[in-house]
Amino acid sequence: MAALKTEIEADENEKEEVGEDALDDVNDNTSGKKKRRKKKKKKEGENEVPSLNEENTGDTNEGAADEKANSAENEADKKKKKKSKKGKGGKSAQTDPPSIPIADLFPNQVFPEGEIMQYAPSKDDRTAKDRFTSEEKRALDRMQNDTYNEVRLAAEAHRQTRQHMQRWIKPGMTMIEICEELENTARKLIKENGLQAGLAFPTGCSRNHCAAHYTPNAGDPTVLEYDDVTKIDFGTHINGRIIDCAFTLTFNPKYDKLVEAVRDATNTGIRTAGIDVQLCEIGAAIQEVMESYEVELNGKTYPVKSIRNLNGHSISPYRIHSGKTVPIVKGGEATVMEENEFYAIETFGSTGRGVVHDDMDCSHYMKNYDMPSYVPLRLNSSKGLLNIINKNFGTLAFCKRWLDRAGATKYQMALKDLCDKGIVDAYPPLCDIKGCYTAQFEHTIILRPTCKEVVSRGDDY
């Protein structure tokens, strides 16, 4: 590109030189032509005194013309600045805090790609390095453009929401306050529309020894503390195409090594992932990196451990966990990743035992994906609640706060009945031992025919 740019500039300079004498003969007071002459002289380092003819003729008209030209230039500069705010693809400027739907920010309805990574050669995919340039693979890529574009829209809504929350969250806020701000922002940006667009699962804001699946129920008074290590895990979707992405929020720098370990482990998992790569290879690579770190807390050094009974997973439309698991420790299945699969690569590190168990009040629920559309129920309250779930969430996860928002009342017994019958599954908070600290990072990736796209990647992580 640098060489091409130099040739273009040389052509423009040659044109200016050829036309210079003709321009000097025309006294039309046009600011654009004067501006080009002045720019040329400045560029060549000319400090010549202007000729009398140029300096003294038509003073009054010249002054008026210059004033008019300056005004026009200022107006042009303003327009240029305004245009520059739009960014690539005609993107309009977002408000602060963000409130304009992502679809409205991109008039051409083409949404930004995530990070593009070429596949590394593997023992099972000898042609990995050729995928990026293969015409056949490029054609397969183009066939999926609509799907990729939907997921990128959901990813942009996720990025802008989480970056707002990173600036907005402060110690002393209640967890309900934090979740409501995040969810209200995400709903605006994704342009919530029933099951076609919205939030993919409740906002996880698990703290300290709690690694996942905690969101406050109504009336929960929990307050975020300066010394907390909080995992912010939320999802957006368009037509069931889910972005599952999470980060760890801390205020005290003493946790920096823990956060660094988990971020590094997640990025290692992303680099290792690819078409025909065995899932167990990814787990081994993640554990090796994760457990190379240690963190000093209050004078004591703790090794960072991968939480061995948590993992990443494949994602399919309206199904957050769609069958394949991506371990974060060595061992596991030799199942391979395949072309055009979507994965959440997520890792959890802990200063505790590195194992989690169910604990605390349950808030997360999800309808069993394999249940038939019609299920006979005896209790009218159960029928009514199931109708609300089908209408508002389908097979996407939900929480009690969302049932309240959907208008459900006195549903505790009905919810228990649906869980007892296996129609709805409960997902209680997952905790390591009390007193330890856990961290998480997660990205959604697409194994495109030509390349690996980390679709949820942002400037933040």
From TrEMBL:
InterPro entries xref list? Creatinase/aminopeptidase-like (IPR036005), Met_Aminopeptidase_Type2 (IPR050247), Pept_M24 (IPR000994), Pept_M24_MAP (IPR001714), Pept_M24A_MAP2 (IPR002468), Pept_M24A_MAP2_BS (IPR018349), WH-like_DNA-bd_sf (IPR036388), WH_DNA-bd_sf (IPR036390)
Amino-acid positions noted as binding substrate in the UniProt annotation, renumbered to this chain = 213, 321
Annotated Basic residues bias: 32-42, 79-89
Q: Where does a divalent metal cation 2 bind?
A: 244, 313, 346, 442
Gene Ontology molecular function terms on file: initiator methionyl aminopeptidase activity; metal ion binding; metalloaminopeptidase activity
Q: Which domain of life is it from?
A: Eukaryota
Compositional bias, Acidic residues, is annotated for: 9-27
Fetch the NCBIfam families from UniProt.
met_pdase_II
What is the protein named?
Methionine aminopeptidase 2
